[in-house]
Amino acid sequence: MTKMNLNSLKTGPDAYGKFGIHGGRFVAETLMPLILDVENAYEKAIKDQSFINELDTYRRDYIGRPSPLYFAERLTEHFGGAKIYLKRDELNHTGAHKINNVIGQILLAKNMGKNKIIAETGAGQHGVATATACALFGFECEVFMGAKDIERQKPNVQRMQLLGAKINPVTSGTGTLKDAMNDALRFWVSNANTHFYIIGTAAGPHPYPKMVRDFQSIIGEEAKKQILEKENKLPNALVACIGGGSNALGLFHPFLDDEEVEIFGVEAAGKGLNSNLHAASLTAGSPGVLHGNRTYLLQDDDGQIIDAHSISAGLDYPGIGPEHSWLHDIGRIKYLSTTDEQSLDAFKLCSSLEGIIPALEPAHALHITGKLASERKGQIIIMNMCGRGDKDLSAVLPLIMKNDS
Amino acid sequence: MNRIKKTFNKLNKENKKALGIFVTAGDPNFENSLKLITNLPDNGADFIEIGMPFSDPMADGPSIQLSSQRALRSGMNIKKCLSLIKIFREKNTHTPLILMGYYNPIYKFGKEKFIKKCIEFGVDALIIVDLPPEEDDEFYLEAEKNNLSMIRLVTPTTDEKRLKKILLNATGFVYYVSITGITGTQTPNIRNVQGNIRKIREVTDLPIVIGFGIRSPAQATLMSNVSDGIVIGSAVVDLIKKSIDNDGDSSNIELMTCLDFTREISQALKHN
Q1: What ipTM does this complex have?
Q2: pLDDT, tens digit, for every residue of A128-174?
C-alpha cells in the first residue's frame, strides 16, 4: 500500500484505490481492463482545462448551480438551539444531488467515445438523472431498477420512460438496489466494449468512489464559501444522510481537514437497529467485499449479504462507500442513525415549517440535525437537503394519514 | 506430482481432452450434492469444479444464480462445503477438485484458516472470481506460498500486455472465459476463441481450459479441439432445476440426468 499524506485526510485513495483497508478493485477479469480504462480517462480529464470548463458550464446553466445555502429560520426556532442551514441540492435540475455526478461521468463517457449508458437506481433519482443526461447528449440509456423499487417509486419510473430510457426490472435476489447493481454489473460484463456504466454512488471498484466523490464535492466547496460569506466562520457541524454516501461525501469532503468542524453521517435504522430490518452498515455491519470494493456490509456469519431495509429506497443498500468506512475507522466522522418513523416525523415537520417537502433520504438527516441543534445553542449546523420529496408522496401519504387518524 | 498436473499429463499422453464439471456445493442439498460429486469421475469428469454459493454472484448468469440460491436455502456454507470435500476425498484421491467462488465468504471465514483447511482436505486449486491480479496481495500470494494453485482467468477483454502480467506466476491451468459475459448466457465464437488461445499459448506452457458458454456435446467437441479441456456448469445445474421443477422435490432423479449428460459430453470428447 502506498502511504497517504498524513497531514491531510483529503488525499485518498492510494494508487490501488484503497482508503485504509477499504476500497480496491474486486471485480472479475472481464471488467478489469475497462475499469483501468475509466481510471486513465478520468485522471486525464480532470487535468484537462477544457473538460473542467465544460463541466462548469453544465453545472451553471443546466443543473442550476450553485445551489443556495438557506437559513431555515423556522426549523431553527422550532428546535431552539443551533442555527440550521440547508444546502439546497434538492433545487438542482431533476430534484436531487445525483445529477452533479451524472453530468461529470457522461462527459467522461463522451470523451471515451462511448454513447451507450447503463445505470442502477434505488429511489430512481440516479436513474432519472442518468436518463436526463442521456436525453441531453442523445445517448442510449438503460436503467436497472429493482422490481420492488419500481412499485414504490412510480413517478420516477414514468419520468425515466418519458426521457427515453429503457427500464430493466430486476427480480433477482430481493429486487432492490443491491440486486439492481448486480444486474447492471452483469450487463456491463456482457457489453464491456460498447457501454459506459454510470455508478450513482461513491461505491464500487476504484476509480468510482473517488470519481463520484470528486464530482459531488462541488456541494461542500460551495457550502464552505457560502457560510463564510453569511457567517464569516466555518460551521460547527455538518449533517447528511447516507445510503452509499455520495451526497454526504460531497458535503463533507472539502471540510475533512477543518478539525473544528464536527461531521455526522446518518444511516437508515429502518424499524430499529435491533430489528434486523435496517440499512445501517457502519453501525451494525462488518467489513467485507461486495460490488467491487471492500467496505462495511450487512452480512451473516457465513459472509452472505443480508438484505437492507429502509422506508427510503435511496438508503436501502447493505453496503456503504469505502471512504466512509475508512472515515468511520479513523473516527473523523460520527455515524448515527434514524428510524423509518423518525424520518416520517421529520418529513412532515420540514414540509409544514419551511414549505420544503424533503425526500425521505434527507428527512433522515433532518431528524439528527434537529437533535443536534437543540443541544447546541449559538452554533451553526449545515445539513445537506439532497433531494425533494415529490417522488415519495405516493408512498408516504398513506402512512402519514394512518398515523394521524 | 499434484493431481492437476498428473491428470493433464495423462490425458495429454493419450491425446485426450479434459472434461471439467461444475456443480454448486449443496445444490439442491448436501446429500444429493455429495452423491452427484462422488459419481462424476466414474461418468467421465476428469476434474470437478465445486461452486461455493454466494448471495450476490456478480459474474454468473441465471442458471448458476438459481443454483446458488438453492444451495444457500439448503443451508450450505464454507464449513459444510469443506466437509463435503473431506468425505469425497476419503474414497477418491485422484480427481482434481477446484473450489470456485467469490471472495466475501472466504474473507469472512478467515483467509489463513480457509487455505489451511483446503490443503488439509485435498482441494487442489481455487478460482476466486472477484480477485483480479491487482488484488494479489490480498490472497493469491498466501495461497501460492502454501502450494494451493490459484487458477487465473483470461477473458476476451484481456489484452496482450495484461496477459503477460496475469500469467507471470500462474499455476495449475489457465481458465479461458470464452465469452464477454456471464456464465451460461452466450455461445462462444470458435474463431475468436481460437485466436485468443493461440496468444495465450505464446505466453504459457500451462494447460488451457475453456469455459463459461459451453452447453452441448457439439460445442464441447469444438472447443476442446483448440484447447486442453473444457468446463460445463450452467447446463448441468439446469438439469437439477428441471428435475426439481418436474417432481417438486429434490429426489435422486436429477443425479441420473446429470450423470447421463456428463457421460454424453465425455464420450463426445474422447471419441473425437
Answers
A1: 0.95
A2: 999 999 999 999 999 999 998 898 788 899 999 999 999 999 998 77
Contact assessment for residue A310 and residue A279, using Cβ atoms and an 8 Å cutoff: yes
Domain ranges of chain B: 3-270
Report pTM: 0.96
- First CA to last CA across chain A, in angstroms? 58
Per-residue pLDDT band for A1 (boundaries 50, 70, 90) equals very low
Q: Is B151 on the interface with A (CB under 8 A)?
A: no
pLDDT over threshold 80, residue A403: no
Q: Going from the N-terminus, what domains does chain A have, and what CATH number goes with each?
A: 18-59+98-212 (3.40.50.1100), 66-95+217-404 (3.40.50.1100)
State whether residue B126 is helix, strand or coil.
Answer: strand
Which class does domain B3-270 fall in? alpha beta
Indicate if the pLDDT at residue B1 is higher than 70: no
CB atoms near residue A398 (< 10 Å): 10
Distances from the Cα of A36 to the Cα of A15, A33, A193, A385, angstroms: 12, 5, 13, 34
Chain A residues near any Cβ of chain B (below 8 Å)? 16, 24-34, 172-173, 178-179, 182, 185-186, 189-193, 286, 288-292, 297, 299, 301-305
CB B222 within 8 A of CB B10: no
Query: What pLDDT digit, counting tens, does each position of B44-102 carry?
Result: 999 999 999 999 999 999 999 999 999 999 999 999 999 999 999 999 999 999 999 99
Q: Do B58 and A299 touch (CB under 8 A)?
A: no
Helix (H) or strand (E) holding B77: none
* E strand map for A77-115: 83-87
Q: How far apart are CA A192 and CA A395, in angstroms?
A: 37
